[in-house]
């Protein structure tokens, strides 16, 4: 078979076209991977532990960038890898920060820190009024010291949440990112802001 210059040129053009396509796919893949693992990431809620504020099957957008510039704050809703099961992800709310002492008293979370050494109750207006009990009877008057790089997290649905009350403190490196907003279902799109605790 004789390969004419015209056929050789056509093949060359076809290979060039295929190479351009593969190159563009590679660039897109790298960009998506960088965004996915360092900037933002989707997450689907599975379970009722964050009711009434997040519902099962809702899709969240996770902000991974912010925590490169500042530490997690009290009240942030975060996606995390629990120490009891590193093959899964949970979504919880940060209540205790490094340096805090957390106490359970009369069904409430009490924070002891430099500003409030005697302790002050966290005012959690986002909880359902009929579902805000924070501890088991055996936790009464229990005080938890939070060391550096550790956090105390709980679900907003206190009666149905597997969280720091059962598996302990959460290391900083186990926090994947802060929940930014709900993007699906479309009729429930909303921001997930961190509360401002007037007393802390």
From TrEMBL:
Highest taxon of the lineage: Bacteria
Subcellular localization(s) per the UniProt record: Membrane
Membrane topology: Single-pass type II membrane protein
Enzyme class, UniProt record, top EC level: hydrolase
Residue spans crossing the bilayer: 21-39
InterPro entries: LexA/Signal_pep-like_sf (IPR036286), Pept_S26A_signal_pept_1 (IPR000223), Pept_S26A_signal_pept_1_CS (IPR019758), Pept_S26A_signal_pept_1_Lys-AS (IPR019757), Peptidase_S26 (IPR019533)
One Pfam family this sequence matches: Peptidase_S26
Catalytic activity: Cleavage of hydrophobic, N-terminal signal or leader sequences from secreted and periplasmic proteins
Positions annotated as active site in the UniProt record: 49, 92
Domain Peptidase S26: 22-183
GO terms under cellular component: membrane
Membership in a protein family: Belongs to the peptidase S26 family.
Protein name, entry field: Signal peptidase I
Organism for this UniProt entry: Candidatus Abawacabacteria bacterium RBG_16_42_10
């Amino acid at each position: 078979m004789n390969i004419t210059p015209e056929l050789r040129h056509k093949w060359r053009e076809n290979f060039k076209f295929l190479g351009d396509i593969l190159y563009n796919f590679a660039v897109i893949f790298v960009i998506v991977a960088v965004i996915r693992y360092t900037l933002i990431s989707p997450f689907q809620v599975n379970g009722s532990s964050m009711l009434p504020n997040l519902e099962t099957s809702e899709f969240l957008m996770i902000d991974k960038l912010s925590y490169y510039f500042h530490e997690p704050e009290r009240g942030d809703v975060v996606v995390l890898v629990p120490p009891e099961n590193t093959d899964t992800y949970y979504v919880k709310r940060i209540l205790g920060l490094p340096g805090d002492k957390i106490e359970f008293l009369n069904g409430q979370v009490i924070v002891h820190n430099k500003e409030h050494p005697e302790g002050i109750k966290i005012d959690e207006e986002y909880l359902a009024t009929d579902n805000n009990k924070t501890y088991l009877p055996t936790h009464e008057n229990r005080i938890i010291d939070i060391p550096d790089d550790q956090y105390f997290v709980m679900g907003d649905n206190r009666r149905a949440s597997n969280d720091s009350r059962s598996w302990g403190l959460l290391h900083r490196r186990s926090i994947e990112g802060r929940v930014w907003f709900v993007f699906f279902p479309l009729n429930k799109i909303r921001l997930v802001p961190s509360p401002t605790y007037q007393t802390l």
